[in-house]
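Need tokens for this chain, all 108 residues.
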Amino acid sequence: MSKPEITTVLTLSTSHITGQDNGLLEGGVDPMVGTWFPLRYLGENDGVGYMVHVAPEDIEDSDKEGLKDMGYSSAITGIQEYAKSHGCDYIRLDPDGPVVEELDSFEW
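Here are the structure tokens for all 108 residues:
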């Protein structure tokens, strides 16, 4: 009998992404997979949140350019690097999630 697989999820406020990032996630484009849809959910106060993958490898400059070409801001790269540095497998962007000083924040 195998053991269950347990993953680590970083929860952050959606204020750490730009309005444009939000639109891309809402449209179903996972920034680290490209064609895989991020899981979208309704938060406690009717705000929309997302679950996205953490990049399996270090984010190379070419990946950063690819994200930029997709329309994502550099905030997505910062969030990915922050999550990776904390050993996370997924990022939960929640309208009611915590704001972290080390990351950029946006009002939209």
